[in-house]
Amino acid sequence: MSDFLLENEAARRLIQTLGLPVPVPARLRRAKGPWEERPLHDDIVAVGGTTGAAATAVLAQTLTAAGATPWLTRDDHVAVFAEPGEAFGRPAKRVDLEALPDGAKLRGLVFDATNLSDPAELHALYSFFHPLVARLSSCGRAIVIGRPPASFESAHSAAAHAALEGFVRSLAKELGRRGSTAEVLYVERGAEARLAAPLRFLLSARSAFVSGQPLTITNEVKAPKDLRWVRPLAGKVALVTGAARGIGAMTAELLSAEGAHVVCLDRPADDALVSQVARQVGGSVALVDLGTPEAPTQIVDHLRQHHGGVDVVVHNAGITRDKTLAKMKREYWDQAIEVNLGVAIRSTAALLEGTLRDEGRIVCLSSVAGLAGNLGQTNYAASKAGIAGYVRKLAKHVAGRGITINAIAPGFIETRLTAAIPVMIREAGRRLSNLGQGGLPRDVGEAIAFLSSPGAVGCNGQVLRVCGGALIGA
Amino acid sequence: MAKFTKAPAGRRAVVVAGVRTPFVKAFAEFLKLDTIALGDATVKALLQRTQIDRDVIDAIVWGGVILPGLAPNVAREIALDLKLPAHVEGHTVTRACASGLQAVTSAVAGIERGEFDVAIAGGSDSTSNAELKLPQKVVHALAPLAFGKATPKDYLGVVSQLVPLSEVLPKMPKIAERTTGQVMGESAEGMARRNEISREAQDEFAVRSHHRAAAAIASGRLRREVASVETPEGKTVTADTIVRADTSVEKLAKLRPVFAKDGTVTAGNASALTDGAAAVLLMSEEKAKQLGLTPLAFFRSWAYTGVDPADQLLLGPALAMPMALDRAGLSLADMDLVDMHEAFAAQVLSVVKMLGSDAFAKTRLGRDRAVGEIDPAKLNIFGGSVALGHPFGATGARMVMTMANELHDTGKRYALLGICAAGGLGAGAVLERA
Fold it and tell me: Which of A383, A391, B153, B289 is exposed most, by the fewest CB atoms within 10 A?
């Protein structure tokens, strides 16, 4: 689990000095500790947009409350930013894109393109980002806000908004070398207020390994009563399966840091490990073998008996049984499909029968392998692609109760699983992302914590990749 | 001595008198007077002026920021130094720059709860006598020598632990936040920038503070609240030394910013390090009547709260003052006087701006409309800490004394107090004429 190019300072310097054709990945800025009131404290964020764009008021409120110092590139934004700027002591600065003030590096660039109606207007993207990208700090963030292309009657408009995705995917590749990322937020009409939580997450250091992503923000789930930025999960019960190690253990830690009581679930054989995790996070243990048919009932019974229900469910447990299809044994196929997909579906169904409380959050673990395919992983990829299909469809059914269900698709994450990959393939996997490195379990956990929070109500039925922009994963 | 086991409902504590030492620039006339000696001086003067029977005093409640390490309960030391009856107990409170007000409100709470009938409350600080702190490494290394019979080998062992030298030299005390490491002036600088308070506005405010204080001293209005102090060298200090009647915006404009190259906070628009003390005499209303003393004012309400010190360190009063108003059931418009501690002109102006901001009220206070504009004619009518100086623990009691006297003298009804403090603390209080 060690990345030579990140950890060996001498090697980094040598490669840079000799100008070797090896890209030296940036050391990613990651958040420490629980969510803050002001995740963007003193960060400069430039704001641009097309005329009459709809998300600007939410941007003004969100950025200033989060502690950012806004740089405005449009005159008509000045009035919008005046009030929240005054309230939070973040007076907006109007800057001229042609003559940017010297010195200061920007932490974020946000462009509100919600009002785009024709591909000709895409030029505004160029005008805003072209002079600013060079001023973006390392581990900076670029975010474009558009409308879901399918929401338009006009094919012109759909084209313009679909273009945003190609733009950020490519920008993400361009910025990745310096640890920066780019994403597009597609916000439905009327759902603008729900941008706050995704913006705070994506602009902060918590989204270190999320890159080149479209994320859609909808109105379909009713807003939670209680919205807090600090300790958003206080008083909630969270179930994390596969909590003994890796991503699961990290997720348990992060959810507990946000105030949740975490029920750490793993196999009876991993009692010692999972108990240690539970003790560390002040949670409790549920020993369930997910390979047995009774597993869903056992989970439901445990949660009802000890906690009277559950608010957050993270289906993290998963297995790999890799072989090329020609050589794969029948058990390999069955086990992977059953544990990764079957159990998640059946226990979700069981939990929805009165155990998962209203305004609950379900997060399933998919995989980039499931989205892109991977050699030797027909079984695994099928199960993980199945998860993606499952959350997309189930989202519509649970929305009425204020519940959301989403999936996270990790790419190359430095865990026990990836450490077992042969070295050459492992190196390739690492370097093939925009960020030129593998992610950490923390990166996945942060994304899970985001989707588990009340503020993420606008995200439902989504698959959020935490892959650094890679197309290989385990 | 108080005989109550439980205070009758509605019992009120009243301010009957107050006095302070001259406020003197640190490392000057009061160099040889530590915080206890300053406390002794002011309480002694209070006793002389009021001629109160020492037997009726129940307690001293004292506020301080830089407390003497070997005798941190300054209140009790004052009682013992002044040979007050043994039953006059004492406790010392610390709440950064709100310590003086804290001492007063603690004593008021004690009286209204029935714990005391009569209490002296106040505070003092002597920046001149701040103790240099040895690094903990040195303390731990020296412990074997201090607590046992050391052999020469032990001495050598200690020496070997004390390298490198840079880690064992005493640290200069500075007014920096423990959690953020930021010096308070830098915080004020940040607030000036973030709330768009110009250098000119700060300098104008500072000049007004000096001019008002100087005029009030010249007229005798403030002078009567000050008791002269005799120093160990035999000199008598009779007047405040920081206030400048002859300062002007032009003069202050020449000063260089201290905390940032392109900054706006200067020595001229900030409060100076000061030595001094202030005290007030508090008692229950019945007791005042019984003793034939005239109540000046009582506390209608008070409030303490906090903001994140990493954000705007000194913005606390913008939250605490509205809280105090709410608790009093009054609005800013009802206030005849507003007295705010002036740590920095930038901080006072930031708070004043936020109290007048609809946007701040909506987002930060959950109100529909701004708390209100403060008429400059009502705000710090005799100047404030920028002109008078700011012995940390004394400022709160000074403000209570001056406002209580003013309400009584003029027949005005309400005064609102506001104090910012390290750690992001804010204090507010509403005084009403008795």
Answer: B153
Q: Please indicate whether, in this complex, the C-beta atoms of B359 and A90 are within 8 angstroms of each other.
A: no
Q: Is the pLDDT of residue B1 over 70?
A: no
pLDDT tens sequence across A120-132 = 999 999 999 999 9
Element (H, E) at B79: helix B74-81
| Pairwise CA distance, residues B382 & B212, whole Å | 5
Model pLDDT for residues A68-104, shown as the tens digit of each residue: 999 999 999 999 999 999 999 999 899 999 888 888 8
Residues 6 or more apart whose Cβ sits within 8 Å of residue A73: A46, A47, A48, A94, A95, A97, A128
Q: Is the pLDDT of residue B139 over 80?
A: no
Spatial CA neighbour of B62 closest among B14, B105, B127, B124: B124
Domain A21-217 is in which class? alpha beta
- Domain ranges in chain A? 21-217, 237-466
CB A431 within 8 Å of CB A439:
no
- List all residues 6 or more positions away from A197 whose beta carbon is below 8 Å from its beta carbon: A450, A453, A455, A456, A457, A458
d(CA A415, CA A383): 20
Quick one: what percent of chain B has pLDDT higher than 90? Answer: 84
Q: Is the pLDDT of residue A473 over 50?
A: no
CATH of domain B184-221+299-433: 3.40.47.10
State percent of chain A over pLDDT 70.
99
Question: Could you read off the pLDDT of A405-437 as tens digits, one per residue?
Answer: 999 999 999 988 788 778 888 888 888 889 999
| ipTM (interface pTM) | 0.85
Res B162 pLDDT > 80? no
Separation of alpha carbons B186 and B346, rounded Å: 11
B310 in contact with A at a CB cutoff of 8 Å? yes
Strand partners, A215: A185
pLDDT of residue B46: 98
Report whether A144 contacts A167 (CB < 8 A). Answer: yes
Helical H segments across A220-294, by residue range: 246-257, 271-280
Q: Mutation target for A interface from B261, B355, B360, B362: give the one with most A CBs within 10 A.
A: B360
Q: Which of A37, A67, A86 sits opposite B359 (nearest CB)?
A: A86
A21-217 and A237-466: same fold?
yes
Q: Where are the domains of chain B?
A: 184-221+299-433
* Contacts A41 to B, Cβ<8 Å: 310-311
H helix runs in A44-154, sequence order: 56-65, 75-87, 123-132
Token output for B268: 């001229």
Mutation pick from A88, A93, A229 vs chain B, by most beta carbons of B within 10 Å, is A88
What token pair was written down for A190?
Answer: 């009327």
Q: What is the CA radius of gyration of chain B?
A: 22
Kindly list the distances between the CA atom of residue B382 and the CA atoms of A194, A274, B378, in Å, as whole numbers in the listed order: 50, 66, 10
Residue A185: exposure state from Cβ atoms within 10 A (0-12, 13-18, ≥19): buried
A405: which 2 tokens? 């269900």
Q: Is pLDDT above 80 for B200? A: yes
pLDDT in the model for residue B161: 72
Closest in A37, A84, A91 to B194, CB measured? A91
* DSSP assigned state of B105: H
